[in-house]
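[step 3/7] fold_predict: job queued, chain A
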Amino acid sequence: MSTFTTRPEPTTRLGAIIGKTVSVKGTVTGREDIQVDGRIDGDVDLPENRCTIGAGGHIQGGVRAREVVVLGSVNGNLEASERIEIRRNARVIGDLKAARLVMEDESYFKGNVDTIKTEAPKPAPAPAPGPRRNPLAFRWSSRPPSCRTRRRPSASRGAQYAPGRLRGGAP
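[step 4/7] structure written:
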């Protein structure tokens, strides 16, 4: 009897990869993450995904994505709805437009930077107002503990306890 082992499905999708020897001329659009290790002569449009330009990658044109990470070189404008990262030894010539910008040491950038505001999450609606209370009104729970509980008689005041006898010294 033979047993078959099944391979678990990957939990994250890597996306498309443009290899080192691949060259694309024209516009690249899609709905998945992309990694460019080759060359693209044209625009890249991935408004809901991440575009990574690898160390050997080169893009001659604009890039629009949710996140843009540059390790190679880009000659064109970069626009990201969340963030742009320009890593060490990367080269970017063009304008940047993003909510957040990260530039590492030894990276090269020439152009203009425009930061955009992201929409702040809407605050939760306030709870419905309850009955109004007078803050100066006396509440039983606000009294100190000494006033809330009855003091026990102590032995120093003549109170005694013995089996078969009542408190307070009465037989």
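[step 5/7] annotate
Residues 6-12 have pLDDT under 50 and may be disordered.
The two ends are 90 Å apart (CA to CA).
exit 0
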